[in-house]
Known about the structure:
The chain is of the alpha/beta class. The chain has helices at 19-33, 69-78, 95-103, 105-113, 143-155, 179-194, and strands at 6-11, 37-42, 81-85, 126-133, 158-166. Helices cover 37% and strands 17% of the residues. Flavin mononucleotide binds at residues 13, 15, 18-20, 87-91, 133-136, 141, 169-170, 172.
Amino acid sequence: MKEAVKVLGIFGSPRRGGNTEILLEEALRGAEKEGASIDRLDLSDFVITPCKECHGCDDTGKCIILDDMEKIYPKLLEADVVILASPIFFYGVTAWAKALIDRSQALWAKKYLLKDPSLGKEGKRRRGFFISVGATKGQKVFEGSILTVKYFFDVFNADYAGELLFRGVEAKGDILKHPEALQQAFEAGRRLVQNP
Ligand SMILES: Cc1cc2nc3c(=O)[nH]c(=O)nc-3n(C[C@H](O)[C@H](O)[C@H](O)COP(=O)(O)O)c2cc1C
């Protein structure tokens, strides 16, 4: 039997039932509809210490900080598709998401310093998708985060497969005022599994 595509949803907002969670859930529902196996990480439930820039990972590809990231590294590597969902906080992703991203420096070291073949050209390719919302309508509101997320995806060989971004979304549930948003998230989830 063909193995199910593994989709990892990373929920980077601390606000439950908020706009990001609604969109992420729809995307995961779409992926599940296509037969994917789903795993979701709610970052605000995890203890993720920010990177200390000790370079402890340079020689091993492993972080020396022992916290919940130990559970998250294998999940990133096992996934076929990673969906990172974070609202915009001060023109970036949330601190919850950024802590995880910075700690992926250990994977960066594994890939670029140690040239581990599993993260090289011959290694498994993954797909990454970014979901975000912001309260303002500024043209540049997502620019910084998109770059951050692209470089994050690169460390575990995830091609940037697309994004779903909504401006002018502030209060909890505001996203429901965009009726097409939920459908778009559902379809994005489906597509990510159809073309893993
Ligand atoms: C600390 C903080 C910083 C924020 N910074 C921005 C910002 O720079 N630009 C913006 O458009 N919205 C900003 N927002 C608004 C959130 O992105 C917006 O309310 C979003 O809908 C929250 O998503 P959630 O319901 O999934 O948590 C900020 C909100 C908070 C709490």
